[in-house]
């Protein structure tokens, strides 16, 4: 393989990978200089000129002519007068000899190895470009096509044919994709594993929800409305705290849109995830009250030291505050940064009810605490629920719940 064929084949391959001309020339020169160092031990006195468009390669060895008896005659950049005159008879001491080195002088094996090295360098460069490209896009939404569905992940292809990964844990539980589907997700992170970039996408990240709002709500995109914080249980419920420094803008109304037109687009993309948009405020009690929406709070007691908040509600509001699967109160706690305990307000009709603490001699305290976390602080509030409801709301086992029911029922039968 001569230089022209080698360079032209490499240039064509490089162009197919969208490698720019300066980078192509730099890689070619690096590889040829590596060949020179392997054969001559150094490349310091060599000039390499490449014209990738024409496939031209010129390698010149530059040496200074010294007397045959000079002590410098063995230096890499020196040549004896007698040797120089074999190249050109009229050379004199002190002149420089430019000796052209043909590619064939390196040997067929070295040239083949150079070809393989060039291709590998482009592949490595391609990996670096892919890594850098997606590293700059971390936190941004992209669209990609599903091409393979595996047990623990979905493999997608972007517009340039690069492979992206959407792990199961980064998918919404209700997501159902088929080959050929277009998927929206954010670039979650980019890992380099054994020299290969792995682009990990996510649909469960709060950032994904934030970017969807930016796409659907111009005021958010323009910075007129600020998203202060987002908490999510992907596919189930989310709470978004927003604020605006312009009093003329209603941040909640702008995010929801006329008849919910803006937020509906976001909800559909998130598989009907229930999204609560609330006004952020520095007033902690008001913030907690808004965070527990749609429940209406009667009173709040804040303990700054323990970072706990006791919230009291009317009996018919307790289940709303807790929400299906306990998601509402969990998300409210994460949004405000305090642990929220829900308590039922007693009224004149609750005289016959009994506080759960009265059963501490029969029911372990940790079980009572677990029930109170879900707003169940009296015997009748527990008995009003079915076994299935308690299993869903708490982390208690079925046998434990059966025993609780037995103890509480015995109290009222007596």
From TrEMBL:
It is found in: Cytoplasm. Its main location: cytoplasm. Residues 139-204 form the S1 motif domain. GO terms for biological process: DNA-templated transcription termination; transcription antitermination. Monomer. Binds directly to the core enzyme of the DNA-dependent RNA polymerase and to nascent RNA. Belongs to the NusA family. This is Transcription termination/antitermination protein NusA. The lineage of its organism: Bacteria, Pseudomonadati, Bacteroidota, Cytophagia, Cytophagales. It comes from Algoriphagus aquaeductus. GO terms for cellular component: cytosol.
């Amino acid at each position: 393989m001569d230089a022209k064929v080698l360079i032209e084949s490499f240039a064509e391959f490089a162009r197919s990978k969208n490698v720019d001309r300066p980078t192509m020339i730099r890689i070619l020169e690096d590889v040829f200089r590596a060949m020179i160092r392997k054969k001559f031990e150094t490349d310091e006195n060599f000039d390499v000129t490449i014209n990738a468009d024409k496939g031209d390669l010129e390698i010149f060895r530059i040496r200074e002519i010294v007397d045959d008896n000079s002590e410098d005659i063995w230096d890499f950049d020196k040549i004896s007068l007698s040797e120089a005159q074999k190249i050109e008879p009229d050379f004199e001491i002190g002149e420089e000899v430019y000796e052209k080195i043909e590619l064939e002088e390196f040997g067929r094996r070295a040239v083949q190895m150079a070809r393989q090295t060039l291709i590998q360098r482009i592949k490595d460069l391609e990996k670096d470009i892919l890594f850098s490209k997606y590293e700059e896009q971390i936190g941004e939404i992209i669209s990609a096509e599903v091409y393979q569905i595996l047990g623990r992940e979905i493999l997608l292809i972007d517009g340039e044919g690069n492979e992206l990964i959407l792990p199961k844990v980064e998918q919404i539980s209700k997501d159902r994709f088929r080959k050929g589907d277009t998927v929206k997700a954010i670039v979650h992170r980019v890992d380099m594993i054994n020299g290969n970039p792995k682009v990990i996408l996510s649909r469960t990240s709060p950032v994904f929800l934030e970017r969807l709002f930016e796409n659907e709500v111009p005021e958010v995109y323009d910075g007129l409305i600020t998203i202060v914080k987002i908490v999510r249980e992907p596919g189930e419920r989310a709470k978004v705290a927003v604020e605006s420094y312009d009093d003329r803008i209603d941040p909640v109304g702008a995010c929801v849109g006329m008849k919910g037109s803006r937020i509906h687009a976001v909800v559909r993309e998130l598989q009907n995830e229930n999204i609560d948009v609330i006004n952020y405020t520095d007033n902690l009690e008001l913030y907690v009250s808004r965070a527990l929406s749609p429940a209406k709070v009667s009173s709040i007691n804040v303990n700054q030291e323990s970072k706990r908040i006791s919230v009291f509600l009317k009996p018919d509001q307790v289940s709303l505050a807790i929400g299906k699967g306990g998601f509402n109160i969990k998300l409210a706690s994460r949004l405000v940064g305090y642990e929220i305990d829900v308590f039922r307000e007693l009224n004149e009709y609750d005289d016959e009810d009994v506080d759960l603490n009265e059963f501490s001699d029969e029911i372990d305290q940790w079980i009572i605490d677990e029930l109170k976390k879900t707003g169940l602080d009296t015997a009748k509030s527990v008995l009003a629920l079915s076994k299935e409801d308690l299993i869903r709301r708490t982390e208690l086992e079925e046998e434990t719940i059966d025993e609780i029911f037995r103890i509480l029922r015995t109290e009222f039968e007596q």
